[in-house]
Amino acid sequence: MLLTLTTTMPKASDLGFLLHKHPDRAQSFDVAVGTAHVVWPEVSAERSTVALLLEVDPVALVRGRGRQGEGFSLQQYVNDRPHAASSMLAVALGKVFRTAMAGRCDARPDLVGTPVPLEVSVPALPSRGGPELVRRLFEPLGWQVEAAPLPLDETVPAWGASPYVDLRLSGTMTVEAALTQLYVLIPVLDDGKHYWVTGDEVDKLLRAGAGWLEGHPERELVTRRYLKHQPGLVTDAVARLAELDDAAPVELVGADTVEADGEAEARPAPLAVRRRAAVLQALRDEGAKSVVDLGCGEGFLLRELVPDPSFTSVLGVDVSHRALETAERRLHLDRMPDSQRARLRLLQSSVTYRDDRLVGHDAVVLMEVIEHVDLDRLPALERSVFGHARPTSVVVTTPNVEHNMRFETLAAGTVRHPDHRFEWTRAEFRAWADAVAERHGYRVDYRPVGDDDPEVGPPTQMAVFRKVAA
After folding, report:
1. CB of 196 within 8 A of CB of 145?
2. 296-326 pLDDT tens trace
3. What superkingdom does the record give (predicted)?
């Protein structure tokens, strides 16, 4: 198995710093199925190429497949694994270039995060979906894709094409992004893994896919194939990706198909879109001009607040510095018009701590936030928002646990996201909101978000608090 990475960036030999591999040395690394070799076919200031060659040990390969409980089969001994790129190459990629994939370069930190011209070659890549699927996976990430089908037998043209392609990618992006995308998408195209997939794979997928997978148009297919179609793991990953992209899990889980015509069936507006629309409408109904998105995450609501000139001041607040950095990238602050940029600020703070910077705003939004707070910390959130910041209006949305039974992807008794500390019924949410309003001098109205099921109510419930005049 072979993969090469080439750059023509200024002083191209600096690729060695980014990869933590010296261009003047050939190196070998032991992996579970054999030995990975790193060599440099060409090194110059103008152009440098690094090659990763995986030499598979057939005995180790059979032992590895035995761990999956497949028993004896001829396929253990006769297969394409020593020759075609697969999850074994991805594992080697992750081990050999682990530090580079993490975006670290202590020797030359100035190189990290800088997009550079790159070319990738994988001469024999299985693609269960053909060249078209290769393009659907890589082109949305900014790559120019050449995926030439390889014949079954060059001497017998009538046999047609094999399920393998000669993949060549070219584009300008960071080395970290290129490596993590290959790490995820090579086994996805092969649609198989040589090792047993456990819950740890969900974390690996989310780490490697951070910043690109959550918004990928084929993220459902990627998630299902990467996790070997295991429903429990897929549900977990889909829910966590939904949180990153603010989309409902129910929208992401479906049949893992490759559509021949490339056209997807028309779908209703996602719940996440309807939720943001409901929050925006509530803010407009309240006449809010200055808005705090408390627990803004990666900025999906901010992206709709900022272009609207009726909101003269928008403050995005989150406890996660990484989430705020992602929000800054998603909002394209460097290219945002000055008129919009002047209205927006991003701030690191916690929903449970009193912060004077949150005082004096017309409205605070807690959109899908309270369920991530431990129940014993909710009084602190209440004091910081309703007791200290005391905006004119507070808009709160949270899942309606009664509606979970309508989600076919959720097992009975489970919550929509593994980080949810609780999910309330409509009665429980009203009891909490009514008590908060009474304690702090607000009145509260309730609105459904999403289709209001006559039996179990809407998927999302909203409370709109308005401060009572003294």
Report:
1. no
2. 988 989 999 999 999 999 999 999 887 898 8
3. Bacteria
* φ, ψ of residue 294 in degrees (nearest 5): -90, 120
**Is residue 5 a contact partner of residue 41, using CB atoms and an 8 Å limit?**
no
- In this prediction, residue 265 has a pLDDT band, given cuts at 50, 70 and 90, of very low
Distance CA 55, CA 408 (A): 44
Residue 252 has pLDDT above 60, yes or no: no
d(CA 343, CA 315): 8
Report in angstroms the alpha-carbon separations of 308 from 362, 363, 439: 16, 15, 33
pTM for this structure?
Answer: 0.53
Residue carrying structure tokens 């959550």: 214
What would the mean pLDDT of 435-459 be, rounded to a whole number?
A: 96
Say how far apart CA 19 and CA 103 lie, in whole Å. 10
Q: Which pLDDT belongs to residue 58?
A: 63
What architecture is the 271-467 domain classified under in CATH? Answer: 3-Layer(aba) Sandwich (3.40)
Contact between 41 and 12 (Cβ < 8 Å): no
Tell me the C-alpha distance between 208 and 224, whole Å.
Answer: 15
Cα–Cα separations (whole angstroms), residue 28 to 34, 53, 123, 194, 399: 10, 9, 21, 21, 51
Residues contacting 65, CB < 8 A, separation 6+: 76, 194
How far is residue 281's CA from residue 393's CA, in Å, rounded to a whole number?
13
